[in-house]
Amino acid sequence: MVRADVPTVADTKLSFIKSYRKPIPSIYSNVIQELLVQQHLMRYNSTYVYDPIFALGFVTVYDQLMDGYPNDEDRDAIFKAYISALNEDPEQYRKDSKKLEEWAAAQSGSGIADFAGKDGEVEAALKDIAERAAGKEKFHYSRFFAIGLFRLLECAKASDPAVLETLSKALNVSKRSVDRDLDVYRNLLSKLAQGKELIKEYVDREKKKKAERDAAAANKSSAESVAKTEGSKPE
Predict the structure, then answer these.
(1) Helix, strand or coil for residue 213?
(2) Average pLDDT for residues 171-199, to the nearest whole number?
(3) Which among 107, 226, 227 has a CA at the least distance from the CA of 170?
(4) Which of 116, 156, 188, 233 could form an S-S bond across to 104 if both were Cys, CB 3.0 to 4.6 Å?
(5) Is residue 119 in a domain?
């Protein structure tokens, strides 16, 4: 259920466009717009509460999608405009994602699910998620959450499927839902791999065009300079 007193999808898309005014190549823009619509509906669901696993899931998808983008500064600016358009904090997304990745990397493979009996900032955040997920009222499960779990396991080098089951149970989320969404995610990764080939071709083509334009401009400037020099010589 979506809350009544919220921006429309059109409002969110307009906010993004106003925040980032440069043209985005269509091969990226189409996917970004699709993700923005999906995340708008998640963001303004009545049960949604921001959590770091969700943030990690989105950051993971975004970074993989935008890997190879022609300009790093523009890639970061697009990220900030995207999250800001959803009335959330892009710095918090990045900060929490990094914190979770570092925490997971320091855990043993199977120990990543043992957060309930430990103290710490990340452990406290995971306990809060588990409590809200158990109550169902202030927790909105989504595909980004599933991807965030997957990224945690990657960082912990936990390849045993049983660890995902244990972690899902500890967080009070459905393992069946997680498996389903991770299957979709794996298919997305496959498509991204194919898309990156197209992106590389696009980037190479644009670089070649720019080099040709620069060369043409340099030749024109050189020719004009020669013409001026010739014209200024005494007869």
Answers:
(1) helix
(2) 84
(3) 107
(4) 156
(5) yes
For residue 227, the model assigns a pLDDT of 63
**Is position 4 within any domain?**
no
pTM: 0.81
Cα–Cα distance measured from residue 70 to residue 201, given in angstroms and rounded to the nearest whole number: 12
| Residue with tokens 């996917």, as numbered in its chain | 31
Query: What is the longest distance spanned by two Cα atoms in the chain?
Result: 95
Instruction: Indicate the pLDDT class of residue 105, thresholds 50, 70 and 90.
Output: very high
Q: Count of CB atoms within 10 A of residue 200's CB?
A: 11
* 202 within domain boundaries: yes
pLDDT at 97 over 90: yes
Give 49's DSSP letter.
Answer: -
Number of structural domains in the chain: 1
* Lookup: tokens for 205: 């083509």
Residue 4 has pLDDT above 80, yes or no: no
In a domain? residue 1: no
Report CA torsion sign: 189, 193, 196, 198.
Answer: negative
Predicted confidence at residue 79, as pLDDT, reads: 98
The reported pLDDT for the residue numbered 60 is: 95
Distance between CA atoms of residues 1 and 33, nearest Å: 22
Domain extent for 129: 9-232
